[in-house]
Every structure is written in C-alpha cells, then in structure tokens.
Amino acid sequence: xxxxxxxxxxxxxxxxxxxxxxxxxxxxxxxxxxxxxxxxxxxxxxxxxxxxxxxxxxxxxxxxxxxxxxxxxxxxxxxxxxxxxxxxxxxxxxxxxxxxxxxxxxxxxxxxxxxxxxxxxxxxxxxxxxxxxxxxxxxxxxxxxxxxxxxxxxxxxxxxxxxxxxxxxxxxxxxxxxxxxxxxxxxxxxxxxxxxxxxxxxxxxxxxxxxxxxxxxxxxxxxxxxxxxxxxxxxxxxxxxxxxxxxxxxxxx
Length: 253
Hints:
Blueprint: H1 4-8, H2 15-25, E1 38-42, E2 45-51, E3 54-60, E4 69-77, E5 80-84, H3 90-102, E6 108-112, H4 118-121, H5 124-129, E7 134-136, H6 138-147, E8 154-155, E9 159-162, E10 165-168, E11 180-183, E12 188-192, H7 214-224, E13 230-233, H8 242-252
Parallel strand pairs: 5-6, 6-7, 7-8, 12-13
Antiparallel strand pairs: 1-2, 2-3, 3-4, 4-5, 9-10, 10-11, 11-12
Helix pairs in contact: 7-8
Organism: Corallococcus exiguus
GO molecular function, one term: zinc ion binding
InterPro entries: Beta-lactamase_class-B_CS, BlaB//VIM/IMP-1, Metallo-B-lactamas, NDM-1-like, RibonucZ/Hydroxyglut_hydro
C-alpha cells in the first residue's frame, strides 16, 4: 500500500527520486534469517522456522541408519540460543552451531538432550570441544555411557524451567529416560521420540521402550502441558495435538 508520504509529494518533482529508489530496490540482497522459513545448512542438515525465535532442525543419518532424519530444536534466548538434541554426528552439531553464530547471530550457549540414543547425543563431542554445556537427566547420562554414546556433562531435574523452555520427564515410553520440552511462549511442544508423527504406522524402534508404561506417561505429559498447540515429534513432520492421539492409538494396537 502506498505510504501517505508519497501522496504528499509533487509528482512532477519526484521523478528523479523515484528512479533512484527503483534502482536501489533492484539491487539483489539477502533477506534476514527471520524472513525465511527454511535454511539448508548442508546436504544432511536444515533448519525450519516454527515460530518467532523457535527453529526445528532436521539432520539425516548415514551408515546403519542411512536416510533416517531426526528432529530437534534451536531456541533463541536473549542474545544467545539453546540447542535441543544435537544431531546424529559431531558434523551435524557443528553445522548448527556455525549457523546459529554466523547467520542467526544467536550463538548456542547450552544444550539439552532428551534421551540417550545417538540421534540425540551424537553431536555432543562438538559442544564439549567448544565448552558448551550439555544438560540431561542423570539416567540419560548413565545410559549413554553404558551404550557407548557421548555423555552429557550437566544434569537436569525431572521438571524444571530452562531459559525460555520447560523440560519434563513424563515417565518411560520410547526409552526409560525420555524428556519432552515445551516452549510456552509459542505453544510448541517438542516430544522427541516419545511422540510419533501423523503418518507413523508403528511405534518405531522399541529396543529400549517400555510399551506398558508409555500410555500412563503420555497422560502425564498431556496433564503437564495442556496448552500445547504445535507438536514436533522426534522424526518426520510436526502437527497439532492430534499427534498425541495418534501415538495413543498406536499404543492401543
């Protein structure tokens, strides 16, 4: 819409100015990060804007899990940011840290991992090397060590605020130690592998799961975070509260 400023100008006198502005407007420029919805950081790493200050990162595995993608969060916190889950590999984590620092201009100051599997903990060595503390439950650290996976250096309570986030252990499900993470300001709940995507036909990897406890844990999650509007599962596409219903339906099968 035309600004009132232009309507007040004499059209006979503003021609040169209009030409100058048109020429300037045609100069190619790179839009700021907040105006874009998705960035590809590497062939196997990308980030997607979910809400102001909240980004979902997606990393793709190779090797034994080749082609499997895993989600996580990057959440702005003042002039820094918090990483939730670290990608499959140190290289994934490095791509995320570099982008947060150089493009987003909110360098990562801390990280949270939601359980002990490699799709959550694989990038920890990169954060350790840069002195960035990685937080998790004590059970997660113990299980990561026994599995031979990278071990988070700091500990979390079962329910606590963490900057702009709220972390909660609802009980065993996909794994005995799985956390969920809420960003209350946006209504985004990151369920990790505790929550399945809308197209999932099964509960996925059940090697460490407690299927008997999972339904009760899911109910505790619903009660603890009743205002979740957007749900991000550990794999595949985000959705709404229907992802909780779908996970529950899969458990009933």
